[in-house]
Amino acid sequence: MGTRNVVTEASRSIGESHQIFRAFSQSPDERVLPEWLNAAKGTTPCKRVMQIIETIRRIDEITSKAFVSGAYRHIFKVGSARRFPKNKLEMQRASDPFFAKLDRMLDCYTFRVKGNKLLSPEISGGWLPYLYCHRQKDDFGVELEYGKYETKATPGTKVLSRATYRVLEGDAVLAVLRLAQRGMLGRVRLCQRCSEKWLFAEHSNYRFCSRACRESYYTSTEEYREKKKIQMKQYRERLARSQAIR
Length: 246
Fold this sequence. Notes:
246 residues, alpha+beta, three-stranded antiparallel β-sheet, 7 helices
């Protein structure tokens, strides 16, 4: 596996801090966040990050509803006066308590800015800005391999292990915010079958963490059982006809 739980007081190298505008440490946020949530399950840091995720989703839900209702734009017909919905202010302010809650939750994270000089000046002008998050008192860390996928060896081959880096609570929070910025936070979800493992849905209809969970879900539905019942009935009828011909 490419993950290992760690909790450490050691200082962190610049290679383990977040790039401000790009995926974290060469690994995309859509991989980093679910793996951290799965490793940190049940811990206080995980609960804090999940509260941030749910608050952002609630804000998205409220503001989207207000926008569709016309609270942030004029609703008018050609030749008629422009007007806002009567409850415009009420809809606009509905998300204020959640924004205040989000601000309070984010206040506990302290970040520093770092800069890294690259060997190739053609990349980003030769410099990359980083954000470094101070470790929380009860922080939880998980160690991941660099890159999008874990290192796997085929039978008979040997693969050298990749370098690893640590993901702490503050890093997970930055991953949440960047995914929200990209409109992809909604794809980080719990498996619909086991409700225990987090996943990133590469396609919007992905709902399960594994093939086993997907098959278990569909075989337990009434629709599947009814379909299977019909198939077995048809099979017995075909079998009876073939035996009658003989």
